[in-house]
């Protein structure tokens, strides 16, 4: 069984996220977008963007993981939930960025409104958050377990199937040449069979041409099949099998048994 991933991510994921945030922060600080290159020396500017991207990584790292998990749990479309998380997360981020910027460059006080700070956050954070979400969704999809022996639900031609046996979420198809798994559900696989057969047990379907005999063990019955196979017969199926001629008619009671 695969180990469940932590809801808020592993330490390694967070380390990578913050490393990327620092790298992007340095790059953006050097180029100085939104006229920030006019604020003065590059040192404070790089510091400002590195800190802002790290804080944004913390905020959106939590929100996007919770958004994806919530969308999966409540069967909601992922992207509308991600957009909502972006719009919500940009509010505390805009408040922090405006505070840090006006602390480093007091002459900005009153020159940039909170709405403008918010718009800058959405413009910068949106593409980055989208990239992170897409990358993690693709990574999670690659980690989805696949049953190594499972095959597509394409059954052999009519006459080649001896019996079907339900195994968890798959169906084992027994043929004269061996067996393999196909995807269920059991009822759909049975419906795809083109030749005569019957469901003789909750977990078994048997082709009539495969039956070689009947074995009684007390009140329990088993059908012996070609290929050294045997299928149990549920008590609820006995009457149907007798009516279909698969089993001999029930013998009449002995005279001494009649009351």
Q: How would you briefly describe this protein structure?
A:
The protein is an alpha+beta fold and 259 residues long. The protein is 48% helix and 18% strand. The chain is built from six helices and nine strands, in the order H-H-H-H-E-E-E-E-H-E-E-E-E-E-H.
Q: Please, could you describe this protein's structure?
A:
This protein has 259 residues and is of the alpha+beta class. The protein folds into 2 domains: 132 residues, no CATH class; 101 residues, Beta Barrel (OB fold (Dihydrolipoamide Acetyltransferase, E2P)), CATH 2.40.50.1020. Helices cover 48% and strands 18% of the residues. It has 6 helices and 9 strands; from the N terminus they run ααααββββαβββββα. It has a 6-stranded mixed β-sheet. A 3-stranded antiparallel β-sheet has the order 7-8-9. The radius of gyration is 33 Å and the shape is rod-shaped. The chain starts with 10 loop residues before the first helix and ends in a 16-residue tail after the last helix.
Report the average pLDDT across residues: 85
Strand content: 15-25%
Oligomer: single chain
Reading the helices and strands in chain order gives: HHHHEEEEHEEEEEH
How many structural domains?
2
Class by helix and strand content?
A: alpha+beta
Kindly state the number of beta strands: 9
Helical content (DSSP H or I, runs of 4+): 40-55%
The number of helical runs is: 6
Largest sheet: 6 strands, mixed
Q: Radius of gyration from the CA trace? A: 33 Å
């Amino acid at each position: 069984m695969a180990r469940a991933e932590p809801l808020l991510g592993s330490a390694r994921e967070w380390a990578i996220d913050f490393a990327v945030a620092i790298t992007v922060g340095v790059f953006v600080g050097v180029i100085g977008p939104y006229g920030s290159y006019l604020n003065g020396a590059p040192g404070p500017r790089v510091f400002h963007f590195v800190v802002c991207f790290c804080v944004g990584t913390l905020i959106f790292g939590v929100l996007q993981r919770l958004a994806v998990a919530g969308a999966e749990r409540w069967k909601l479309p992922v992207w509308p939930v991600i957009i909502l998380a972006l719009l919500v997360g940009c509010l505390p981020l805009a408040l922090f960025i405006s505070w840090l910027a006006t602390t480093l460059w007091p002459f900005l006080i009153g020159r940039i409104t909170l709405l403008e700070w918010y718009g800058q956050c959405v413009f910068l954070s949106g593409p980055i958050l989208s990239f992170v979400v897409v990358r993690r969704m693709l990574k999670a999809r690659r980690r989805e377990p696949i049953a190594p022996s499972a095959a597509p639900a394409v059954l052999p031609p009519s006459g080649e199937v001896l019996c079907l046996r339900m195994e968890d979420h798959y169906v084992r198809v027994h043929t004269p040449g061996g067996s393999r798994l196909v995807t269920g559900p059991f009822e759909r696989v049975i419906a795809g069979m083109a030749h005569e057969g019957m469901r003789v047990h909750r977990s078994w379907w048997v082709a009539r041409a495969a039956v070689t005999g009947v074995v009684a063990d007390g009140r329990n019955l088993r059908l012996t099949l070609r290929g050294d196979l045997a299928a149990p017969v549920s008590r609820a199926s006995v009457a149907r099998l007798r009516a279909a001629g698969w089993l001999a008619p029930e013998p009449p009671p002995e005279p001494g048994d009649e009351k």
